[in-house]
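protien #1 (seq + structre)
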Amino acid sequence: MVEKFLVDLIQRVKKNEIAIILSGDFVDSELLEFLPKLKNKLKTVGDIKVATVIYANKLPESHFDPLRKAGFSHKIAHSFLELNYLIEVYDLYLREEIDIIILGTKSEMLIPLFTEIRQKNTIYGLTKGNLPVSIVESFDGMININAIEDFEFVEKKIPDFAMEGSDYSDEDNDDFIDITNIGTTSSKIVLEDK
């Protein structure tokens, strides 16, 4: 019981681990200027562990210095940009070290990935105000690069579960059903007027 309490306590006070993954086709000069502001805002929420941009075929020369100054690495996908992006993001998801993932892409093909990730992580999308509604709805929230100062991060609530030895009781809870009335013993079911 003490062990469960300590694990729960550590999870609640640790700083968030954050990853930023951007698709190269999403990055333009306006976004490159925004990246330092984004990182400064994220540092108030947690520690940035990954900051990567994935490009198709080659890195534009004009992007190299701004990415380096903002502390971003880059990767080159020699084919299938969306597939490489998917692999990179899903790899972060499987490592279970990251709490918040910031994603920047225009690809609607990745919506199933975002839906899967939302089960364990908080994910935010970057927008310049021109993304399809289906992508916007697949995130927990959107970060508009033109209004980063006004943005507030909201964490998903971790459900509180009763620990062993707690005084929680289900005796007065009507949400539970009598399992003796399920299955082949359905003849025992008595209909009540409510």
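ok now protien #2
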Amino acid sequence: MSLKRIGELSRDLHFDLSTLYEIKNGTVKPSGYIYFNLLNFLRWHYALTRLQLSGRSGAPVRLARTRINPQLLGMLHSDGYIVSKNKTVLAGFSNKEKALISCFMKLVSETFVCRIHLKIDKRDGVLTAELPSLVARILYNKFGGKTTETVHAPRLRCAEIAPYLRGVFDGDGTIMVYDNKFFLPTVRFCTGSGVYAEELKNLLTRLDIFSRVRFCRNKRGHEWWIVEAKRQKDVLAFIETIGSVHPRKKRIMQHLAPELKRRLSARRPAA
């Protein structure tokens, strides 16, 4: 290939000429950006699910499908993490409940065919499912990082709201039936970001579930926000629409739903 043709290719691919020379000479591997732009330039059709992705380290990753389940993202936004440190992106999910770890790994496998490293903290029994760096980088580039301060709800279609909130609730949510021995069913989310609390409230509103945001601060100055729904019809709607895969929370919902239906039907005037 002549210098002129390489220069033309560089302009067509919108990429640095010196890097193309290094790729041509075998000094460096072509990046994904170069690869996909070259396929488009040559008018070659390709299917993402037939590609095998590989990074500088770690086993290769294959896409089982191009869609990421919103519940997976919700779990990452609760007890999970997506962080970038020293040009390395890390992502994973931590919880003591084995059922949630299994659910997280299943949701990952729906999109990514990869190896997930599982470890346990012997001090408190917390399980952590760590994703390969390549998968973590895809999630980071698609949805951004996740820390207590930077988490934001993604743009979701109506059908995606319930599974996303289910993932968040399983990690950072609680459900209560009694308050000081009074029947006061409540579902709530807890977060360290006031902006994210408002975003969760707006998502619940789109599902016709009324909630409110409450600010809390303890004596040590630690601050957090609570998004809670207390009206019985809203709690019932939460159970029926969103639900939970957490064994204890799911069991509470299964026992609470019939009682809520009975009380709500008793309030309705006879026809």
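The first strand starts at residue 52 and ends at 53.
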